[in-house]
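#struct-pred

JT: dropping the chains for the assembly here, can someone run the whole complex?
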Amino acid sequence: MSLTVKSQAATAPFVVAFADGDMSMSDLMGGKGANLAEMTRIGLPVPHGFTITTAACRHYLTLGREPEDLDRQVGIHLAQLESMTGRQLGNPADPLLVSVRSGAKRSMPGMMETVLNVGLTDAVIPGLIARGGERFAWDCYRRLVQMYGRTVLGVDGELFEVALVAARREAGVVSDTELDAASLKKLTTDFRRTLVTAVGEDLPQDPREQIRRTIDAVFASWNVPRAMTYRKHQGIGDDAGTAVNIVEMVYGNTGPASGSGVCFTRDPSTGEPGVYGDYLPNAQGEDVVNGSRTPLPLQDLADHAPAVYQQLMGHLRTLETHYRDLCDVEFTVEDGTLWVLQTRVGKRSPAAAFTVASAMVSEGLIDLDEALRRVDGYQLESLLHPRFMSAEGELLLATGLAASPGAAVGEVVFDAQTAVSQAAEGRDVVLMRTETSADDVGGMLAAVAIVTARGGRTSHAAVVARGIGRTCVAGVDGLVIDLDARTAACPGGSIKEGDTISVDGTTGKIFRGALAVRQSQVAELLEKQADDGSDAEQAEQAEPVAGSLAAAVLQLLAHADHRRLIGVRANAETSPDALRARRLGAEGIGLCRTEHMLLGERAVLVEHMVLGDESDRAAALADIEELAHTDFLDILRAMDGLPVVVRLLDPPLHEFLPDLTELSVEVALNNAPGGTPDPQAALRLDGVRRWHEGNPMLGLRGVRLLTVVPELIEAQVRALATATLELRTAGMDPHPELMVPLVADPAELTAAAARMRGAIESACVADGTTLKIPIGVMIELPRAALTADRLALDADFFSFGTNDLTQTTWGMSRDDAEGAFLAEYRESGLLDVDPFMTLDDVGVGRLVRIAVEEGRRARPDLGLGVCGEHAGDPISIRRLVSIGVDYVSCSPPRVPIARLEGGRAVVLAESQSTP
Amino acid sequence: MSLTVKSQAATAPFVVAFADGDMSMSDLMGGKGANLAEMTRIGLPVPHGFTITTAACRHYLTLGREPEDLDRQVGIHLAQLESMTGRQLGNPADPLLVSVRSGAKRSMPGMMETVLNVGLTDAVIPGLIARGGERFAWDCYRRLVQMYGRTVLGVDGELFEVALVAARREAGVVSDTELDAASLKKLTTDFRRTLVTAVGEDLPQDPREQIRRTIDAVFASWNVPRAMTYRKHQGIGDDAGTAVNIVEMVYGNTGPASGSGVCFTRDPSTGEPGVYGDYLPNAQGEDVVNGSRTPLPLQDLADHAPAVYQQLMGHLRTLETHYRDLCDVEFTVEDGTLWVLQTRVGKRSPAAAFTVASAMVSEGLIDLDEALRRVDGYQLESLLHPRFMSAEGELLLATGLAASPGAAVGEVVFDAQTAVSQAAEGRDVVLMRTETSADDVGGMLAAVAIVTARGGRTSHAAVVARGIGRTCVAGVDGLVIDLDARTAACPGGSIKEGDTISVDGTTGKIFRGALAVRQSQVAELLEKQADDGSDAEQAEQAEPVAGSLAAAVLQLLAHADHRRLIGVRANAETSPDALRARRLGAEGIGLCRTEHMLLGERAVLVEHMVLGDESDRAAALADIEELAHTDFLDILRAMDGLPVVVRLLDPPLHEFLPDLTELSVEVALNNAPGGTPDPQAALRLDGVRRWHEGNPMLGLRGVRLLTVVPELIEAQVRALATATLELRTAGMDPHPELMVPLVADPAELTAAAARMRGAIESACVADGTTLKIPIGVMIELPRAALTADRLALDADFFSFGTNDLTQTTWGMSRDDAEGAFLAEYRESGLLDVDPFMTLDDVGVGRLVRIAVEEGRRARPDLGLGVCGEHAGDPISIRRLVSIGVDYVSCSPPRVPIARLEGGRAVVLAESQSTP
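RK: done, full complex below.
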């Protein structure tokens, strides 16, 4: 007796009964209709109904009117509905009423047109009174007029609100639920008069005409501007069209044996097993949601209607088993009969995502691959950072951009120098600056958190903070620092140096005083597990709730490790950071930035090298080599057995020198009347001027330094070689690699590599041994990517520096662009994403792809890594996996994220290739 | 009787007699051998001989010894040689002596191994004495021992020099030519003793062994390190090998009826017709060249041996007709018999290149395409600039890099302000700065020349100077400017402001005082011709010598115009520049940089806009719009009927603001004890700080300004639209186009274009008309090139800004890189060419190619132009033609160069595709 066909063959059907559809048919039936059909199919008590398909809608949109045969088909299905429900349209004794709702394939919240109680006319009021009483009947009627008026006739909804206000005033009540039958009856009349006044027509008294016109109105609503804007924003095509569901009305407000509820099959915030939901007796579904009455826990239903409750529990189990996922469910009980009105896969918190996925694996509902597809790196990231217990009632000082997540408490300092010295005394300090530069990195390393007045989520402060795992709030509105007075003005009051503040890098809020911090138990367990080799089961036994979450994370991370093909390394310069990265699962150091070893107090050594005379230079060089030797020993020891990629000095030399403007002012004041001329300062100024560059990012940096300070590079390489030999002698297994930054032309790499090999050899000769250190090149300029075939001839590996590559490909500096225009670009929608956060596929991604393909073609055993900021961003990692790099290297706290996404990339790709 | 085959089929021959070769066989016979064969073939009196081919050499190099059959084949050819010359090897009465010389396909000057007089032994001395006397015989013999010793036996040449010095001392003479027969005989004995002492063997007394071993030595010389280095540097393959020419010796030093000479078939410096050369009676060829005796003009030969002279003239005519080019020729007369020893196409000056090419067209020797292939843009460029008459005896102040060619005389000024004010008084000024920035552009426009202490050929000063056609010397060694004292110290003395100096931008030299300038008559004529429509013939009649050169240039430019497919436009902002460009043949303005209209005194308007309050802003905006309107009227009028591409404001805003460091010092001094606080200056400093950027090149510029000063852009567009409408009303035919700079993402272009169309429309509405102004996008960032397909949807045309594209593709700023490392890169050979001067094919060129292909695929009617520095560089133009752009736009003085190279690109491509 099926009037429809399931397949979307030659001509897609215009109407599908719930009994004839299933969940695979969401293209045709919309998401809502397909789920109703599925529940019908598996025997759940869904009210009878049918779906007018998206195919019909598309015909309507193309023709500008209903397709020829639609009315006849709807008529046939309505007749079936009458026969199944035992009620008839227009039957005064027991009328069939229906809801008419739109339902597209992809949910469009707030865009959904709904008209309830369709089929209600003056003639059938008696039958409705018999079903739920007088007040119930008139309340249904006035609602129909109101919804029909707005949706079908286009009457301004405000007009009905005005009448409602008048009715409440007249009745002396405050809420609509207090209006009695008489008031509601009068309101129905008023509403109908409003229709006539506004558009010249009344509610049709033919139920079928009501239905027909409501269907047309829903179809037409697809192309209202609001819906088009929403679809454009969500990337939903304009030609999909919407389905329309016609469902028999059931009522939860017909008396004490009725009621409505909303529930989840598990706790959506913790993922704990057990049903979680709200119930309201003698109420409709919308009353549960809109908060006009306080809902009761589901237990209430168990107490008052245990049979219905047991029935519901059974259905929920059925649904979860059937959908193999946490479901959210709407239900209604009418006079003791349970109806399931809607279900869908439920939204959940990051913690619940992991807990549910892992539990369902244990329960045999899904396999580990499926579990991995159901969590993501963004969720994991939010689980790895400390949080404040509560900020309720705390004094909010200011709000900025959440630039690097976490929660930290410390004493405010206003410069890097003070940060370093206070931290050395064992204090926790928060470094607060107008903005940061390379000069501040030492202070940032010493601080527990960084706050800046200017700059965005990709400013220097934000990038460095994320890179070294410090909490950071950037671009704080209204923060003005007075460096002379050692105070700062905030919108929430002023603070002075030494004051304790609490910085929430996850929300961007800054509070006065010390808030209680809750450490991330997941992060702690991850590190602990690595330390004592405890496994997921042990973890679960140790800490009941967070332990079970942590166990879930460990389980899915382990599976991601099992599935992923991409390696995960970390960017680190110190042995504590390296050890932490190793505990979090890093398989090596992919980027050790030697400039971080020369900042802060050591910068003066570089200054001596660059500005000093011959003997200054030699002394500084010797000191640098010795310090580097010690640093390399530390990090190679920490990463014993694993690769450590050391990058030669990258930043412009002048970053190690005093600021030109500050020094110019100092010298001018020295030379002014009353000042004391300082020949040393004047000499320094000459030097700083000589090294000053208009655009240092495009100037003397990276491999280009070979032309001016080759000794410095040789000293670094020699220090690495001797540290390696020393550890080898001590029986360890060091694996250093060397990397040349900012190469634009293959000849630069060739020259640098020759010099580096010479330095390694000289260290070996002194030691009477041999040593092979792989030499790679950073691909961080478009020209390097475009000459990859030639670079590959002289490089053992490529490492993509996607930060700089983004800067030059887009021609925008991360530091300058954010405040100047990039933030505004994002706000105005000119750019969807920040290319410094998420790898830009068509520009930067294309260059990476070119370099990978052409480099590997020239040298099949070429190593390929990524060490830019993107290596820790979930979407970017998936793109990088599809491009085919060997490993990503990210900041230590992001190592678990990269591991997870590395595994997900594989299972997601597999599920896409096998539909 | 031919023993060889001409074709290089299956097995290439090892030996080819001159009589059996021709000029097409240089692969096999080397350049020298092929030319000797060709001259033999056309009946010129070439000494008999044969060539041992490169094939034999390659066999030798592969086997490490002579190929099996070579000795036998050489023997057969030597027998033929004996029969043709009538002399025999080892014949004491009249011995055959030969020269053995290497001769590769491509000339390797200084790498060529030569042994003369081979075959000379003790036994044949009597025959040689009979031929040229005793002194002649022993001189030949000692030379053989010397050359054989060095080349074949590897004896240190210094040993022979020591012996020569001793011989001269003993004879009491100063030069070798004064040594008598006895001395030379003794020297021969000494030399042979030297051989024995050094390597244990004497000169073989078997002539055939001498020949055999000399051939081997020449083959082996191919792989000496010196030759390999040279080949690598010149890009010559290592496997080509060299040929060896065995030629009968003839002597110009056998008596008064003998002599040697070198001559050109036309004057190689002017191109004037008529033989030009030197002659020395009773001398060998090397005596003419090495300057030991002063050569006589060829006329001497005419006077003393008119028959020989007439014979030579006939041969020279034959050669030029045959080679269809200016030839240089070496000849020897032995006892009244003329021998032609060598010929090749002669090197010539730029003027001669044009004159000869044009003359040969008139003479019917070559066609115009061939003439065009024989000149190039570099030659033309050198003809278009003024030169100093002579710098002989002038006081050289300093030398720097020849950054923009030309010769200019003016009074020194040390800042842009003074340059502008002095120029306004009608003085010619030379702007002398340590380095220049955008602030100086006004002063540079006002100056006749620019001199900087720092920066290279691609520094700001150099690039701007070339762009606006000013003479410039950059990076002057030892120039130190004292701005306070208004003096400058130079290596050649100190100068003060107002002193007159002469700047030679072609040589990089700076002189004290006013040197006499000779204008480029070619340039004058080019412009004049455009003005009065005079043609090449009239030009020739007007000015005898330069006129004929100018006529040649005009003729070849006209043919280039006829042949070229690429359009040529100019970069200009003022109507004088635009008019000049039009006279020089520009077909439009491809780049009108609106920022040039806002520099100098007008910069204050932008400052008011950016830093001022609401009313400042409005007033400044109105002024800017009015000025822009006038400027656009001027340039559109100048280019009536031709396109004018106006680019929106491009540079960082802060370029219009005061310098941060200078202003900081000023404010600090104001606030110091004894200073007077200036609230205005402090306020300005706040503003300047707010707009300061660490890397302005990568910051708030170009289309990004839309986010902060959209009104400015609208004002510019409106001014262009109203100016266009005004001219249209006046009956003119203006063709403005608009161009958006620094686009990285298609959404930026879309937003900018919408705003621009709005501004055009508002101007039209006010005027009650319509106006379509094409809107294009600059492709100057890698990402723009990589998203060309999408940009093309919103752009009427692309214009490649190859300067900025090079900056970002290479990640190096033109200004900073040159002094910091780029100059050193070039000097050390790390980079062959400066990518800012010549389009880098593998990096920037690839991006241009991608954008052209993908842009045109998306929009077939897309216009494609290039407006970067490279648009005026000959090699780059050829690359751009091959990529397929529609037009190049260069600085006005380079327009003729672009026209010439545009035509050459076509004829060169045709000649390559039809071998």
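JT: nice. Chain A touches chain B through 58 residues (CB under 8 Å). Chain A has a mean pLDDT of 90.
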